[in-house]
Structure formats: C-alpha cells, structure tokens
User: Fold this.
Amino acid sequence: MIRLTTQYTPAGTSYLVTGQGRPVVLIHGVGLNKHMWGGQIVGLAPHFQVIAYDMLGHGDSPRPDANGGLEAYAEQLRELLAHLNIASATVVGFSMGGLVARAFALEYPEHLDALVVLNSVFNRSPEQRARVIDRTRQAAEHGPDANAEEALSRWFSREYQAANPAQVAAIRQTLASNDPQGYLTTYELFATQDMYRADDLHSIQVPALIATGELDPGSTPQMAQQLAERMPRARHAVLPEQRHMMPVESPRLVNQLLLDFFQQANSLCNPAKGVLA
Assistant:
C-alpha cells in the first residue's frame, strides 16, 4: 500500500505526488477528490511520477471564483506544475476533470505532453442537457448530495455496489461533505461547458486518448468518438460493460488502457530499454 502525505502549493491546491519518471497528472470528477485515483496511483507509480490533486472547490483546495470559468481550473493546474518545477506533463482528466484537461490543453499547450479524457462529456443532446441542468437546480436547492442515490446508480454497476458497500458509502460521504458553493460553481460548469471552445479543439496537437464505458449513460461512446474526431492525434476507446466510475470499479482495466496509450506516445517511452520511462 502506498501511503502519501497531502501537500499544498502556495495558492493552496492540495495534492499528492509519488513515483519517478515522466509526470502524469490525474484530475478527478465533480463532487469527488484526489483520493478517487487510488487504483491508478498504485498501477502507474512504478512507471511515472504520479500527481493527483483536488480541483477548486473540492477536497482541501480553495473555492473557485464564481466567475472564473474553466480557465480558472486550468490556471490551478498550471500553478501546480510550476510549484513542482514541471515543464510539461501528461494530463488525465475524468468526467469534469476531462473538461479541465481540455481547457488546460487549449490554454497552456506548451505544458502538455499527452492528453487523456476519461468518461467525459461533449455535445450533449437537448435531452441530456435538460437532465443535467435539472440536477444543477437540485444541487442549488438541496446541496451536493441532492441526487446522490441517482448518481451512484449511474456511476456503478449493481454488482459492484453489492460487493463493495463500504467503498460506495465512502464516495457518497465524499459527495455529501463537499463545500456547497464550491460544488455548485463546479457543477454549473460541468452542466454547461461540454462544448467549451469546441471549434479550437483541432489545435490540440499532442497524442490524445478519449475513452469511456460502454454503459456510461452521461458520457457516452458517441461523445467520446465525436470528441476524438475534433483532435488530429486523438483516438477513442470504449471499454465493454463499464459504467461511469470505471477508474474505481475496474482499475486494472483502466490502468492497462492508460499504460498501452502511454507506451504508444513516443515521448513517454524509453526506446533504449523498450519499457515505459
């Protein structure tokens, strides 16, 4: 078991870091925190320097400015990399973290080696947009755990929920313990920014992987394909029978997907040894 100590940047961002090698940054989803990545930290740390952090409004990081937009979340990551003296990194974003990763790729391309977007949103249908806007209203009225039961049923398979009740309960507690204003500011962006700078996505020139689960109802395979088609060096992948929280429910499967992609991205390989740097 890897035991890590939470550290902080000068701006107050809470983060964990472990491992050696080229840096890989993990960005969690709305309502969650850096600890969702436990399975990926264990799987990736033997090969990379792995950094997981709490996005604005979550965990131990400060609240976002209500008017800062996705750019404020991208700036948070830039400040974290500067604090760690990292010139560029591979960025992996899950769900809302995928929107942040996209914003970072557009705002700070010079600091990006490769991009992974997991279970994220793009080009919602009117019906999908209406549902997420309704959930935003519920969160504004009743707080971060207003629709926790519904969320958990979307996120996890029934088999996983039955076999891992303590893990599911811990995630529900994480949702409930969010700062209400920080959560709402973030969720409003998650609900409305699926087409953030969509016409500029062609400018993302790094290798990119856009992946989701076959059974993810909110971050669909069609979304992953459409997003990948906007980026010249992107490919998309759909993991069979997986739902939204596949990094938590199936960490080995997701880790293998990530390691295969990293190995294919030349900048993350050590040709002399033929193994991941």
Remarks:
- Residues 113 and 267 are 7 Å apart (CA to CA).
- Confidence is low (pLDDT under 50) at residues 268-277.
- Residues 126-142 form the longest helix (17 residues).
- The first strand starts at residue 7 and ends at 8.
